[in-house]
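Q: What changes when threonylcarbamoyladenylate is included in the input?
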Amino acid sequence: MTASSDIQKAAAILESGGLVAFPTETVYGLGADAENPEAIAKIYAVKGRPTDHPLIVHLAPEAGVDYWAREIPAEAKHLIGAFWPGPLTLILKRAAHIPAAVAGGQDTIGLRCPSHPVAQALLREFKQGKGGVAAPSANKFGHVSPTNAQHVRDEFDEDPRIGVVLDGGRSEVGIESTILDLSRIDTHGPVLLRPGRISAEDIEKVVGRLPAMPDSTAPRASGTLDSHYAPRTPVAVVQATDLRKVLRKFMMAGRLVAVISHSLPTLQDALAQAVMPATPENYAHELYAALRDLDDVRADLILVEAPPSGSSWEGVNDRLRRAAHDEGRRIEMLLESGS
Ligand code: TXA
Ligand code: MG
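A: The predicted holo structure follows.
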């Protein structure tokens, strides 16, 4: 695990405008001083991410949100009380003195207090706990988020612009934080921009109403682009009853297929198979590692047995839909063609 000298070194790198990768309970982040536009620019450059995509600012548990946000609705206070530290990001109206660079030019700000002990130690050390660390997931734009330190090293291949990669073991949650927009609560109510471990129903229990799904005027979020969180190998999600059929067709066409399943037994025809746990929490915990492992076997396709539906599975299903983007339709056509 991480020594306190590593934390001090990482905080010093952040304070001097450098980049640091660090663990959180969701996924690993690539951090920079949220108030230093030059440091923010380095994140966009290293990730290859368009500069109009806003970043989440990570805060120490003792830091207040009032420094960062200009209006804090009662709902935000209740949600912070219920879920921080933890995997919930709140979008609020940005305070005027916070640089627009961190928010991709938007007049809002994404805030989150992570529960991972290494992240908290870093946030408490950086600017004596009074700063904010802007951090997207520590992966190239559009690729699968990292859930351990080796994933980060694989992703950036020892990029010298990353000062240190703090190792905090495997991320417990495994998929990115739930993002809830409260910046337009007066007119639109709470809006769920990205599902995660904290479900719409969990939010409803605290604020008394279910969050709405995003409309076309909702703030844009890169994690909400259709194609995102994707391995290099095409991914397709199919119902369990169709999976063997699709697998056989691909095999007959000389294609190599890797499988992610959770209820099916070991399939002879699969080049490789990841058997996932049966609960949504444990499935999410292992999902990105499974996608990365199967990406490495160099199959022509990763076939995923569709997980159950329902509120607690929404985070997993959302990430699988985005990893698969347009492959689903191709598979449907193949099945319909009967060939
Ligand atoms: O779990 C997480 O949230 C991880 C860890 C490192 O904390 N971070 C993460 O960051 O997933 P990133 O940049 O990969 O995804 C953050 C998402 C993006 O889709 C971004 O557009 C959205 O949050 N976001 C951030 N600030 C926003 C804002 N002001 N308005 C709308 N969306 C925002
Ligand atoms: Mg990301």
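Observations recorded in class: Residues 136-137, 145, 223 surround magnesium ion (ligand 2) (CB under 6 Å).
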